[in-house]
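User: I'm preparing a small set of examples for a lab meeting where we compare how different chains pack in three dimensions. I only have the primary sequence for this one, and I'd like the structure in token form so I can line it up with the others. Please keep the answer compact; I'll paste it straight into my notes.
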Amino acid sequence: MNKSQIPAAQKDVLSLLLDDHKKAKKLFKEFEAEKSEAAKESIALEVCTELTVHTTIEEEIFYPFLREQNPEAFGDLLNEALVEHASAKELISQIRGMSMKDELYEAKVTVLGEYIAHHVKEEEEELFPKVIAKKIELREILASMTERKKELLNSPVAA
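Assistant: Understood. Below is the structure token output for the 159-residue chain.
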């Protein structure tokens, strides 16, 4: 899904989430290509922060809003997304507690990237098109999502 396919009523919120997806994909590619251990570790920690912020705004604002709008249409997709988030958060926690010197560090970052790629694909190919098809008006949650994202990015908890 690209931004030009999104109707105005959903554009800003879905664009915010799509931008996060794009940034995470880019960081995972950079991690893969990077040769310096210090740089790899820095990239891994940045992607962990970005994903923590992203999953938090989805879980606190976006998913509950969709569930409230249409529990039948979104319930299963949102439940699956929450389980995927839990797996990602567990890996993020492990990665943050390790360093590049740990034997499994790169493998954990790689697997996290694979989880995220799967999750992004489902959101972009199933969830977002369903939001558009059901004509869910997202404007009312844009400000709270944007504000919460800024707050989290400036918080030591995200880092």
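A couple of notes for your slides: The mean pLDDT is 93. The CA atoms of residues 31 and 40 lie 5 Å apart.

User: Perfect, thanks.
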